[in-house]
């Protein structure tokens, strides 16, 4: 188990700051809160936290070493992630006002989609690798990896939900279809901008 209170405190702060600051996940949750409200966006938020916890476990138990040994695998993953982010940006950009007639057919990103997205999310990889390499003591390593992954998920969930609630609070402001369209275009643009570190910054696995 993690024995140092200072280390645990530092890690919780790292988990909070990295979870609540802007990134692809929080951009999509903000847009989901605006377009679908809090209740329908909860599976999206849960998928992020659970998917990220699984990613931290995988990195801690050796996936990061696989990428270091075989960098082309991670390169392929990066470009798949870029394509998927562009698809999500297009979906957000083309979202219109949610009327009663299409409320059943239009759906936010669900639990499994959000969980799978973590594997192509550049910010999630940075967070997972940072958590394992910086805050996981070698003594009792297996237990520490499990603790790190669990604590990160517990800190992450309320942090990302802040963005959903903020988006939901903006719904009344964005009742005008023109303002909603501009908001969705802005969110889509931010997702595209988030591709910069994914495509143009050298990864730690190369």
Automatic annotation (TrEMBL):
Domain of life: Bacteria
Species per Swiss-Prot/TrEMBL record: Pseudomonas wadenswilerensis
One cellular-component annotation, GO: plasma membrane
Secretion signal, residue range per the UniProt entry: none
Pfam family, one: LysE
Gene Ontology process terms (BP): cysteine export across plasma membrane
Transmembrane segments: 46-64, 76-93, 145-167, 179-199
Protein name per Swiss-Prot or TrEMBL: Cysteine/O-acetylserine efflux protein
Membrane topology: Multi-pass membrane protein
Keyword set, alphabetical order: Cell membrane, Membrane, Transmembrane, Transmembrane helix
InterPro entries membership: LeuE-type (IPR001123)
Compartments, record wording: Cell membrane
One term of GO molecular function: amino acid transmembrane transporter activity
